[in-house]
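Cross-posted from the bioinformatics board.
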Amino acid sequence: MLNSTYIALIPLLPIITFLIIGLVGRRYFPKFSGVLGTLSLLVSFLLSAFVAYQYFFEVGKVEGVYQKIIALKYVWLQFSPNVAIDMGILLDPISVMMIVIVTFISLMVHIYSMGYMNGEPRYATYYAFLSLFTFSMLGLVLSTNIFQIYIFWELVGVSSFLLIGFYYEKPSAVAASKKAFIVTRFADLGFLIGILVLSYYSETLDFQTLIQRLTTEGNYLTSIVSASFLGFSALTWGLVLVFAGGAGKSAMFPFHIWLPDAMEGPTPVSALIHAATMVVAGVYLVARLFPIFSNSCPGALEVVAYIGIFSSLLAAIIACTQTDIKRVLAYSTMSQIGFMMFALGVSGFYAEEGVGFMGSMFHLFTHSIFKALLFLGAGAVIHYVHSNDMKDMGGLRKLMPITHLTFLLACLAIAGIPPFAGFFSKEEILLACWNSNKLIFGAAVLTAGLTAFYMFRLYFNIFWNKEYKSHSESHDAHHGEAPGTMLLPLIILAILSVVAGFVPFSHLVTADGIGFETEFHIGFAIGPVLLAVAAILLAYFMYVKESLVPQKFADTVKGFYTAAYHKFYFDEMYLFITKKIVFNLIGRPAAWIDKTIFDGFMNLIASVTESVSESIKSFQSGKVQDYAIYFFAGTLGFVLLFIYLWT
Amino acid sequence: MLFISTALFFIGVYGFLTRKNMITMLMAIELILNSVNINFVAFNKYLYADKLDGLFFTIFIITIAAAEAAVAIAIIIHLYRSLKSIDVDDADLMKF
């Protein structure tokens, strides 16, 4: 067994840092808070790496199977002898993998932010929020029970709200943070109902008990399967609702609309939230409950698969048309998360069938590295150009050589070119699709091709294309390439996105805990790679020089292009639904009832009181003799009353 | 005796309610008090002749009445200073 107490430090260090910086640091040592946050996270990261080492290579494996270990557990809220909410730490392959990723990416972001946010007046506040976010995310991945995960889920939501809306002077940032919060809240409602359904039937909140009860034959499974609502069993409903929560955080269709807008936050935040951590929370959630999905309810898993592939393809198409570089990255994130989702969706549970699960987790791992790199690189570019728009960029390769090189590596990784990280994980996913569902496989290959295309469109537009023209002479003089604190994470991440693919993931992270050998089919890999190369070449010819080709191409498919450029009008659709339908048909009548009936009733009481008191106020004349008359009359009245009562 | 006291009481009440002069009202209050005194004395004499409680009460009331008259006159003087009048109807500031 692991000696477990120090594991608690991994999430506790960030929260302590948050408290210190938030309460004291902002006033007394604002400049130092960045260093403090980074150091505490460094310790957290080292601890996580140590835990991972211990888990994967020393104590985690018992007879060839990776165990689920409850490293720490105490009862937090005891409702009744049977119902309690625990707080604890659960170690299994995916949670160990996640703590390493989260602390690592967060560490990179912390270091990077020291350069990026330098000179920002609310520098310390920013670090406090970063620490809070890291804490929530670590708590989320280490949760032992479904209620604990929900608590941290909401904490992640609120801290991402704070981070997205960090520039609260900007109305667009405020709107974006509200949007992110509200949209995910809708999804979380589904999640909560899902939790209630699942735990009502299984009579437990604990993951292990829950999974055990809902995957083995017995009373619990029978009752939840036999209870049906609208033609589907309670189990299906519960799982689909839980998935809805996951879809909200992971920006899957139809909850994806918040993700692009959330790019209003500082760029390192986008890297942290939208690349590595928060958006994969949904994938993590599905992976956490994967045994139930896979063994007891394949129907719900199909929902996951189809929503995943649809979001993935949709986002890839939209990404090809956007000009804001962060938005392109946001849609690409959505697309890659879609990859992870449908990989889970097509996966089986045992051994070799679990290749989808393994691929999904593998992709989560590699994606968080290269996507963080892309975001941080984009941040460096934005820092240099002071604009998010591709049109203001071009020809930056000579001006920012290191950023250029790292960005190129990340693009190659995401496009799935061997031997970069993305290639391996994407191959596993495609293999899993090929084995189970040819339709999804086709769409996945298409999406992979599109991914290569739009990533290189982005790359060529930023670094090649036209020559860079600075808007003002003065600003080139004082900064060229980004400062060292920003370059260091870029370089580390770039090296990792080259080598991360060689991690023997199939031995470490699998659905049932048993490692297996993945066969590597060279013939199978050629197709997608060639497609990616072709897409890159296409992007090369279209965007390497400033030309009219893209414009002409856009004109030939004008309707489709415009639709994609406007993100298929999802925002407008939601606005239509909320403004026209919800507000007019529900909100207005409700407001009318509230104003006329409820308020009217209260107003009636008030006005009756007022008129009565108006009419009797003349009794208070201020004249002593009037009062004396009332007094005598009253006394007389009492006397008469007593006489009447006695006789 | 009771008739006298009753008559005295209602004369006092009538005077209190109708006179506008505060001094007169004070005198009316004295009348009411005295009617009560007569009552006490009369009941003590005819019902409990061997006890002195009624008489003591009477003495108390006379004492209190003297104090009360002093306070009342002080109030009246003060009112007169601020209102330039001892008409009770002029002292109607405490109203809605």
